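hey m, so remember when u said the tokens were messed up on ur end? i reran from scratch. heres the input so u can diff it against urs
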Amino acid sequence: MLPLCPVCGKPMKVTELKCTHDNVKVSGLFTVSPLAFLDEEDMRFVILFLRSRGNLKEMERITGIGYFTLRGRLERLLDKMGLKPIGEDEVEETDDVFTKLKKGLITVEDALNMIKKKSGGGQNG
């Protein structure tokens, strides 16, 4: 999980990568996976979800946790990662783009591309 700012509590940005083998450092602003925002317990849930091939009934059998509790947990994880289920409001709202940008889930370049795509400006010619 990405560390949170001790002052404001928001996720911190990755700005440096280092190879521990030869001590090479690369600086910049790096985009991270939505998985990086999950804590250890959330990651265990995701791993179990993947190992059960996304079958919540199988997860219910393995864990003894009820289906609807698992489903709620999955919904909270999607929200935490800034993801929407497929087929649910496929069109991105402009406000949603700015929210993702503000939360650090996407880069400025990603936000501009999403807005261009929504307005039809992303097409060539």
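this time it looks ok to me. Residues 90-118 form one domain. if urs says something different then somethings off w ur setup not the seq
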